[in-house]
Amino acid sequence: MDSSSTLGAPQRLSQKKLSKLARVARALEKAKANATPSDSDPAIPTVPLSTDQAMQDESLSPSEIHHAAILANITGRPYDDVKFFAFSRRSRNGSVDTPLSLVANSRLVLKAAPHFGLVFGAGFAESEVSDMDAAYPSSRPAATESYGYWSDSDLEDEGEDFTEDLSGQSIVDASSTSVQDRKMSESEPKGKDREESASTAEPARQLDSGQLPSESKKAIVRPGRVVHLDDVAYTTWKGFIFFAYFGELNFAPLKSQPGSLRMEPASHAAPLCSPKSMYRIAHKYDISSLREKAVADIKAKLSPSNILEEIFTTFTSLYPEVRDVEIEYLHSNITDRGIQARLPIWLTMLGKNELPSGASDIIASLISKLSVSPEPVKCPYGCYGTVRKYCNSGHYF
C-alpha cells in the first residue's frame, strides 16, 4: 500500500484546504458546545454525529474529511459514528447467519456511497440514535434465507474456522461482536423457535436487571447509528469501508482460478474480498468507480481454463456488463483447444436445463462465431492471397 495514503502519513495541504479544515473544526467545536440533552428524554444523548451540518460540505475530499474527523476526535468527538451488522456465514440448512459488526465514519461512507444519505435521513430506522456498544438485537432475525447470492465466496461455510485476526484494527473495529455476538448468534434459536424466544428474551433480561423497558431504552452509552445489511457479507463490507477510507482494494482470486488460495494480506493492507461480491455492492449503490475496478479485476482473472466456468454462473447471468466482458473474452479465445474440448460438457448441461438463464444465448453466439468463415488474408502488396499465403510477386505474407 502506498505509504502516502496511510492514516498517519504527513501530507502538505494548501492554504485553502487548511482554512476549510479550520472552519470545519470551529463549527464542530460550536456544535459540541451548544449540544444539550433533550428536555423530553434527558437520558438519550443528542451530541451531533460526524455527519452533522459542519461535515456536510460536498466540496471536501475524502482526505479532507479524514483530517477533519481526526481533528474532531482529538477534541473528544467519536471518529466512528455508525455501526453495520452483516452476515458472515453460509449454513448447511440453506440460510446465511452469524451477523458480525463493523464500525465506520459515516461521512466517509457517504462520500463513497451517497445512497446512505437517504438511509441516514429522517423517516428511516437508521436515522435514530442508538447505542453502538449494544449487541445484535434479539428482535431481529439472526439468519436469513433471502440473502440473494448463495455462492458468495466472501461468506464462510459452516464448519470452517473463522480465523481472521481482528486485533489491532482501529479503522474497522469488530470488537463488540468478534466473540460475544458470534456466540450469541450461533446459540440463538433459528426459525419458529427463534421468533417465539425473541418476544420473551428481552423482557426477561430487563426484569433481571430491575429495569423497565423505557429505562433500558435510555441507557445509551455510545450514541451513533446502527445499520443492518441483510444481503452483504461481512468480509465484503469490511473491504468497502477500507475503500471508502483510502480508495484501495485487495481482490481475492476467483474460485475458478486453478490453484486459487486466499493469502492473508499484511496487517496494514486492504482486506481481501471477492471482486464479484464487491461488484454487487457497486451495482446496488450505483458506485461507478468501484464497479469499474471490480469488472477490470474479473476480466484480468479470466483464462481459457476458467472462462466456461465463469460465463455460465448465475452471477454472470444477472449482470449484463460482466456477461459482455466474458463473452468478448470467450469469442477471442474460442480456438483454444482446452475450451473446445470442454465445451461439449456445457452443451450437455444446457440440454439438461442445468445452466442459468441466458446460457442458451451465449451458446448461440458461440455457434454463430464458429460458423462464420474467417476473412480471406490480403496480400500487403495488393495481390490476391492464396491458401499458401504468397503472391505472384514472390512475397510471402
From TrEMBL:
Biased composition (Polar residues): 48-60, 166-179
Record's compositionally biased regions (Basic and acidic residues): 180-197
Bias-annotated ranges (Acidic residues): 153-164
Region (Disordered) residue spans: 29-60, 136-215
InterPro entries referenced in this protein's UniProt entry, alphabetically: SKP1/BTB/POZ_sf
Protein name: BTB domain-containing protein
Source species taxonomy: Eukaryota, Fungi, Dikarya, Basidiomycota, Agaricomycotina
